[in-house]
Design brief:
Elements (H helix, E strand, L loop, with lengths): L2 E10 L2 E7 L4 E6 L5 H13 L18 E9 L4 E9 L3 E5 L2 E2 L3 H7 L2 E4 L5 H4 L2 H15 L3 H20 L4 H4 L3 H33 L1 H6 L2 E6 L9 H7 L1 H7 L10 E6 L2 E2 L6 H23 L4 E4 L2 H4 L2 H13 L4 E5 L14 E6 L2 E4 L2
Parallel strand pairs: 3-13, 3-14, 8-12, 12-13
Antiparallel strand pairs: 1-2, 1-4, 4-5, 5-6, 6-7, 9-10, 10-11, 14-15
Helix pairs in contact: 4-7, 5-7, 7-11
């Protein structure tokens, strides 16, 4: 199983210094609102993904009156241990793996498979398809070694094609990018479809556990939308038939960059049938399904980050979720405003830290 052994932070948000040895089971971060507990979870997410889930301005992550922040952690897998680090100043980001400069963010991501649950996680259902593409691509990245290469090729070709469209280049110049788009895009969609197909039965099992009454009364289905409205038409035909309109608009309308997962309850859009609480439980089911699938296919485990668990789930479902994580042997970090809001588990004693205005108190 993957396990963060040690986490060090320096000048990240309002945390001047943190040196925390974690448990491979449950870890609890206790603090008032705005005390800095979410910053710990945010720092780990930044280390694994290269981005924050709270801001798109990395400069805001540097503690006031400082020039840079540093994040470091030791991660143990079944047979290897990795040392991951990132240093970010106002100009650039340096990333390190095992004491050497890493050439790409994906190298760190591969070593630190994190899942994130926050009070805003229901937006996976309520917002546009971008979040659902990220969800699906997370799984594709860890399960299909060639997925990232296809994705990068597609993104480069799409950027160049859109630039040519905006510059009103001749159609034959625009079409030069179509071959790469079609080749890489077809591979991306095939991988995405395969992954979603494998994930669905596992997802239904977790939804049954977390939402038993709902599952007994309603039919919940997921379908793959490739990014254009007629799946029987291949991507090359789509690009050719919409070239004139793309030129007028200045961007590529259809393709895997518009892919979505259509989630329905009794053949109706899920948002019209799921309450806010049910939406949160379904998102939990989606993340747990990914975790279970990763364990089944690779014998590795995710690490779960849960920000403000009491705000996310009621007491009954808090226990259900934490019990599942314990049974699945998933290391998890949980933040809360009060430790008594976190259900006591039958196995092990959690590592707990208390944070107040960036000041850390460690307990043993």
């Amino acid at each position: 199983m993957a396990c963060i052994k040690q986490l060090k932070l320096q000048n990240f948000r309002n945390i001047e210094q943190l040196d925390w040895e974690l448990d491979c089971g449950q870890n609890i971060i206790v603090g008032d609102n705005a005390a800095g507990k979410t910053a710990i979870i945010e720092a780990l997410w930044y280390l694994a993904s290269g981005r924050s889930f709270r801001t798109n301005k990395p400069k805001q992550l540097i503690q006031q009156d400082h020039q840079a922040f540093t994040i470091f952690c030791d991660v143990a897998h079944q047979t290897r241990q990795y040392r991951l680090g990132v240093n970010r100043d106002n100009e650039k980001t340096d990333i390190h793996l095992n004491g050497k400069k890493a050439t790409s963010q994906s190298a760190l991501s591969q070593c630190l498979p994190l899942q994130l649950l926050t009070p805003e996680s229901h937006q996976l259902l309520t917002e546009g398809p971008k979040a659902r593409r990220r969800f699906l691509d997370w799984g594709c990245f860890y399960h299909y070694p060639d997925f990232l290469t296809h994705w990068q090729q597609f993104q480069r070709a799409l950027k160049q094609r859109n630039m040519a469209l905006k510059q009103r280049c001749p159609q034959d110049q625009i079409a030069l990018w179509d071959k790469t788009l079609v080749t890489a895009g077809t591979q991306i969609n095939q991988i995405r479809m395969d992954y979603l197909h494998q994930l669905q039965p596992i997802l239904h099992d977790f939804a049954e556990y977390l939402m038993p009454r709902f599952n007994q009364q309603h039919q919940l289905t997921l379908s793959f939308f490739p990014g254009w409205h007629n799946p029987s038409t291949d991507l090359h035909q789509i690009l050719q038939s919409h070239l004139i309109k793309d030129s007028q608009l200045g961007h590529t309308q259809y393709g895997p960059h518009r892919m979505d997962i259509k989630i329905k309850v009794d053949q109706q859009d899920a948002l019209s049938r799921l309450s806010r609480g049910q939406q949160k439980l379904f998102v939990c089911s989606m993340l747990l399904a990914q975790a279970q699938h990763l364990a089944e296919q690779t014998s590795e485990s995710v690490i779960m980050l849960i920000d403000d668990l009491p705000a996310e789930l009621d007491e009954t479902h808090r226990f259900k979720l934490l019990n599942l994580l314990q049974e699945m042997q998933i290391q998890h970090l949980v933040s809360t405003t009060a430790s008594e809001l976190i259900p006591k588990m039958s196995k092990g004693k959690p590592k707990t830290i208390y944070i107040q205005q960036g000041e850390i108190t460690l307990t043993h």
